[in-house]
Request: fold
Amino acid sequence: MFTGIIEEIGILKEVRKSAHSFVLTIKGSVIFDDLRIGDSVAVNGVCLTAARLSSNTFQADVMHETLNRASLGALHPGAFVNLERAMSASGRFGGHIVSGHIDGVGTVKSIQKDDNAIWYTIAAERRILRGIVEKGSIAVDGISLTVAAVTATDFSLSAIPHTVKSTILSHKKAGDPVNLENDLVGKYIEKLLHVHSEGPVSGSMTTEFLAKFGY
Reply:
């Protein structure tokens, strides 16, 4: 489990490709304070396992399913990546609950300065936008951010200078892909209420419904 508070920007040193999988070699510094083989690291929001360690680099195996869901397959050696270790039980919860399991890939539509803030508008599929709410949380490339507005085709957020400087948001431009993970609590509620893929909530909230599910 992660919080969406990025610890550092790492560098992708090597990509070793197989038919349907990758092995990534990533260099960092901060996260190696206590990183061990088998630990989870969020790389641009994707939960990966540190399979091999060497100096200030770790290697992670990326499965076919992960490549299909996330934008890691588009990365090349030299790319900057957001890094966050799994949250410790004694740590501060500065962001929101982030699982590291990507729901899909969005596209940066526009980037605009607004005094000391920067606005990012991101296009996404309807199935992802359905789970995004104004003033709710979303993880963009693993960064915990607050949604400012949502339309039928995209959503917008305003990032403070510290967040932009401390993450790969500072390297983004229009047209770039970003990994998106919707709020985990919202996904469980959606499942509980049996929301159909292309329609409204099935049925209504009744005392019988609540009793059926133990409330």
Notes: Helices lie at 64-69, 126-129, 161-166, 184-192, 207-212. The first helix runs from residue 64 to 69. The first strand starts at residue 8 and ends at 17. Residues 8-85 form a domain with the Elongation Factor Tu (Ef-tu); domain 3 fold (CATH 2.40.30.20).
